[in-house]
Amino acid sequence: MRCLAVFLVAFMLTGCASSRRAELTPPPVRLSEVNRALEGHRANVVYADGREPVRGFVRIGAEETTVVERSGENHRVPTADILRVELDASLTPAQGAGNGALYGAIPGLLMAGAGGISLATTNCDWCFAEAYMIAGGGAVAVLGAVVGTGAGALGATTREMVPVYEAPVTRYPDAALELLTAEPLAEPSPTATTAPEAAALER
Predict the structure, then answer these.
(1) pTM
(2) pLDDT per residue as tens digits for the range 39-60
(3) Whose CA is closest to 165, among 69, 51, 57, 37?
(4) N or C end: fewer C-beta atoms under 10 angstroms in the chain?
(5) Where in the sequence is the domain holding 106, given as residue range(s)?
(6) Are residues 132 and 142 in the same domain?
(7) Rounded distance between C-alpha atoms, residue 43 and residue 164, angstroms
């Protein structure tokens, strides 16, 4: 019974844990890697000034960021205005239920498999312990799949946002280099004259 209790706890924990996707590992260290992670996925753009976040397809540049919303509306905002960009790393309820069922059944299947191996390698007429492990493992697998399905579906209802980009943009070497090598705006010459002034001087 003690072994059975251990397996029950195990599949409950694995069923709950399976309702989450793995975070981005390793996290992007270059702006080009950030944009590859964002490609094809809608993301949340959180602004540094606290204005309402927007959601859409995002491409981040060293100076300017483009956001295409679901409506097709295209926004261009200074990258310096963005605090972070997040991806939704949560599973759908169906994905959570499927993963929960799979992970919940694993402990019971392992228990039944161990019993089967022991039965095949033991020379005995009445192998009650092995038979108990096989039958108990099968029961645990079924129960684990049922509980794991519910736990996984319930866990998937909680949204989990994973930051993909975080300010400042200069933390990413390729963006910092682009800003560093960008041509500065030409400053007016102190000796430059306007067209009317030049005409007056000619007179």
Answers:
(1) 0.51
(2) 988 899 999 999 999 999 999 9
(3) 37
(4) C
(5) 2-20+91-155
(6) yes
(7) 9
